[in-house]
Design brief:
Catalyzes the condensation of isopentenyl diphosphate (IPP) with allylic pyrophosphates generating different type of terpenoids. With 251 residues, the protein is α/β, with parallel strands linked by helices. It is built from 9 helices and 6 strands. A 6-stranded parallel beta sheet has the order 3-4-2-1-5-6, sandwiched between helices. The protein binds farnesyl diphosphate. Farnesyl diphosphate (FPP) binds next to helix 1, helix 2, strand 2 and helix 3.
Length: 251
C-alpha cells in the first residue's frame, strides 16, 4: 500500500514524484482565437503530448490528468461527442508510441457510462501497457472525487461486510485500497491552468497535502518551459506535513 500523508510523513524530492493536472481553458483558448470550443480540445491534446514527454524527461513517475469530470456531461451534446471521439482516436493512434516509451496507461472513473467501443479500447490499452513502469499515466474520465470515495466505501463493505457492524474499526487504511488511485503515492504537485483556483471534485481525498499551483495560462498553450516554471515553484515549497519549520531544519 502507498504511504498516506496523514498517517506518516512522506519523503519529498525537488521534482514531484506524482503530478496531477486540471487541464482548464481549452474553450477560452478557442474563443480567443475565434474557433469553436471543440478546436480548443483538439489543441489541448497537443499540450497533453508535450507534458507527457516533458514529465518523462524530468523523471516524474506518476502523471494524472483530469480529462472529463462526472459533471462534464452537462456540456452541449456536440462538445461531449467531440471529446469522446478524441479519447477514442487518441487510444487508437497513440497507444503504440506510449507503450514504446514505457508508459503505463490507466483510466479512472465510472467507465460504465461510456460507449462499449470506448470501454473496450480503454481495457485493451490498459492491458497492453500493464508491464510498463517508466511513467504511470492516468486519465480521469467521468471521474469525481466524491464518486471515488463512495465507490471505495461500497467496495470495502462488500469485501468486508463485518465492518458494517463495527464501523469504529473503519480507518484510512481500510478504505484506501479501494480508492481509484490506490496504486500511486499521493500527488506532490497539483497544477490547474486557465486561471480558476479550485479543485472541482478532482482527487479530493488524495490532495490533502499536495502543493497547489495555479496559472492563468490556457491549457492548449502549455509547454515544457511552463512545466519547468511550476517545478521551480514546487522546489521552493517547504513541505511540512503538519510539522513546524524549526523541526524541518533540525538534523
Ligand atoms: C477543460 O477546459 C478541459 C476539458 C473538459 C477537456 C480536456 C481534454 C483534453 C485536454 C483533450 C483530450 C485529452 C486526452 C487525455 C485524450 P474547458 O473546456 O472547461 O475550458 P474553458 O474553461 O475555457 O471553457
Amino acid at each position: 500500500m502507498t504511504l498516506s500523508s496523514t498517517l506518516s510523513v512522506p519523503s519529498a524530492s525537488a521534482i514531484p514524484r506524482h503530478l496531477a493536472i486540471i487541464m482548464d481553458g481549452n474553450g477560452r483558448w478557442a474563443t480567443r482565437s475565434f474557433l469553436p470550443r471543440t478546436a480548443g480540445h483538439a489543441r489541448g491534446l497537443q499540450a497533453v503530448k508535450r507534458v507527457v514527454e516533458a514529465c518523462g524527461q524530468h523523471g516524474v513517475e506518476y502523471l494524472t490528468l483530469f480529462a472529463f469530470s462526472s459533471e462534464n456531461w452537462r456540456r452541449p451534446q456536440e462538445e461531449v461527442s467531440l471529446l469522446m471521439r478524441l479519447f477514442v482516436q487518441t487510444l487508437e493512434r497513440e497507444i503504440d508510441k506510449l507503450s514504446e516509451r514505457g508508459v503505463r496507461l490507466r483510466v479512472i472513473g465510472d467507465l460504465d457510462a461510456f460507449e462499449p467501443r470506448l470501454q473496450d479500447l480503454i481495457l485493451q490499452a490498459q492491458e497492453r501497457t500493464a508491464q510498463n513502469t517508466t511513467l504511470h499515466l492516468t486519465i480521469a474520465a467521468n471521474y469525481g472525487g466524491r464518486w471515488d470515495i463512495l465507490q471505495a466505501t461500497q467496495h470495502m463493505l462488500k469485501a468486508q461486510p463485518q465492518l458494517a457492524a463495527h464501523p469504529e474499526k473503519i480507518n484510512e487504511q481500510s478504505l484506501a485500497p479501494y480508492l481509484s488511485m490506490a496504486f500511486a503515492p499521493e500527488p506532490d504537485l497539483f497544477i490547474r491552468t486557465g486561471g480558476e483556483q479550485r479543485i472541482s471534485n478532482f482527487l479530493i481525498w488524495q490532495l490533502a497535502y499536495t502543493e497547489l499551483y495555479f496559472t492563468d495560462r490556457y491549457w492548449p498553450d502549455i509547454n515544457a518551459q511552463h512545466l519547468q516554471e511550476a517545478f521551480d515553484w514546487y522546489a521552493t515549497r517547504e513541505r511540512r506535513f503538519g510539522r513546524t519549520s524549526a523541526q524541518l531544519s533540525q538534523p
